[in-house]
Amino acid sequence: MPPTIAFTSSEGMNIIESIVKKRVTKFPNGLRELQKICIPKILNQEDVFAIDATGGGKSALFAIPILIHLEINQNPTLYPTFTTHIREKPVGIVVTPTKGLANDIVAKLMSNFEILVFAYTHDNISAARRASIDLVKEITSCKYQLICVDPEHLREREWYLIANSSNFRQNIIFACAEEGHVIDEWGLGFRLLISVFSMTATMQPGPPLLSVCSTLGFAGSRFHLIRRSNECPNTKIILQTLTSAIGGSEFPQLLPLLNQQRKTIIHVRTIELGYQVFLYLFLNSPDTPNQLRRFRMYDSLASEKYNQKTIELLENDPYCQAAIATKAFSLGIHAQTLVDSVSIGTSDTQDDSKQNGGHAGRDDKVLARQLEKVKKIAEVAAVRNVKIQSTKSPIDPAKVVFLAESLCHVACENIIYANPPLETSHLDCIQAERRIACGLCCVRYHIPDDPRLFPPSVDESILPPRADDLTEEEINEVKQALAGYEEEVWLEERLRGPHCYRPRYSYLPKALSDQLALDLLKIKSIELLTAILTSHSWPFIISQGLSLFILLTSLQARVPTPDYLPGSGSEDEDMDNLLDPPATSSRPALAPAGNQPRAKHRPQQSYAEAESLYARPTGKSYRSKMYRRVLGAPRGYKKSPLKSRNPILFILAGCISILLIVIIISPFIVFHIFCIIPLVNKAS
Fold first, then answer.
1. Where does the chain cross the membrane (predicted)?
2. Can you name the CATH fold of 10-227?
3. pLDDT at res. 442
4. 352 and 301 in contact (C-beta within 8 Å)?
5. pTM for this predicted structure
6. Which of 242, 374, 461, 558 could form a disulfide with 378 if both were Cys (CB 3.0 to 4.6 A apart)?
7. Inter-residue contact 234 to 435 (CB < 8 Å)
């Protein structure tokens, strides 16, 4: 009897390489490094935890073991005997956190490897029942070579029947947990359902890794942890402060980015925020025949067919530029053409941020960007004043470290995930000679933006641009606001010891004030502001830097954009005309808020015009609410009660009141005349 060999031996690995070249035509260069390490161990029925960057080829770990079994079973005379039993109908199970990821795996594997894959999702189950198809029978007969299922369906009665099928158990060659870093969310009951291999792009060392390994039962000599660097060398990480309200309806920071006509994925935390972003981009895009094809939504409420169509359009349609997606997209779903990833708001964990950024730049030949538009908590964390105990919900410690980083974001991520090689991964972008520097390194080393790396679009059918230069009148408005701020700084800082004898003009020098006014719209982050303040040797960066940035951000929000010019059309224009590009690029001056500090826009009507427009019989509470909130009237404003009353009705009401008074007092008068007066006369 010939000796048996293991797939992990050199001879076994050579056989794997030859079968891949024979049956996988889309792998002309053979297996990647991660695949060469993991596939022999999976075929040898060993436990594997694979950690690698997004786009590193982890999905091939599902299909290639199945192809190896099929090839050896169909041609047994061409191959030696292996220590592992070769199945006639090999089956693999992949547990996925979302149905979108399951559908994405099905589409990719059936296209690239030509194996039969089934996504055990609600839509597919319902379709099978309508067609009178017995899924339990089909799965236990090993009709499908790979099955994608979520943890919820694994606990249903049908899967207990499937797991008790001897034919199905005999043909299973592996089970895998995709996106293994979310296993803790599935609960400890998941341990009994899967225990072969797992993979993810984001897995922090220490307690998070130990928790997942404990849940999966990974221990002993047959467990292998394959940790490779999840750094994306062709992606530039940029952290910027969100200048608009996270719950608002305007996101002007997206316009310059989307003007470059690059395929973009915009990550949002809620479906409601996604609709607000979609509506803002739609209303600000030119009125062209391809307007509805330019932006798409991807969320769990949309149908599977719609979400799959969104991915297809991102990959194949040149007119589809951006998708606004929730977490349903971030877990493992990819489009090869995406080059920019934008996250609006601070994510819950650092793993979520890394997953979002990994969707851009899957093609190593292009330069990609990972932009995070973070909220006020990021501003506070950036100056290391955040108090985790004071927040409403617990904050991921790794996320706080990343937000507070002041040297290099790439090096910070490498430290968080212990990315090898440690000799260079902990260095900043310039010292490590990375392909592209992160945003922090560009500021520290004074590296200007190179338009050759991210060239702007010259196409006329782009979103209306937001100018970077203010008009002369707007500059004067900004200087007045800075003068008021200078007085506040002087009143606060002059009482402190180091600044008692400092001359008044040095609290905000004229040269610094002029530069801040000229570059107002170019200051997009607190890092850029810090660089400007440092160049002027401003001594109040630590104590006043954040308040100055908040002031500049509020001034930026008051600068009107070209697409909201007043007087660009008549009052009876149709709503669609708002989508037309403006007739001129000039913008009006900054509009002071006056006595309405909470108002974002000035009222477009006077109270007299509004009174004539809304003169209809409505309740007093509704009218007062309408005047104050819709028209922007101050809370103390009250309409005079006599102006809206008819004089005849007023006189009639007075007569009725007098009559009622007479009726009420007449009994007392009669009693006094006929009873009291005679008694008094008799007594006298």
1. 648-680
2. Rossmann fold (3.40.50)
3. 92
4. no
5. 0.62
6. 374
7. yes
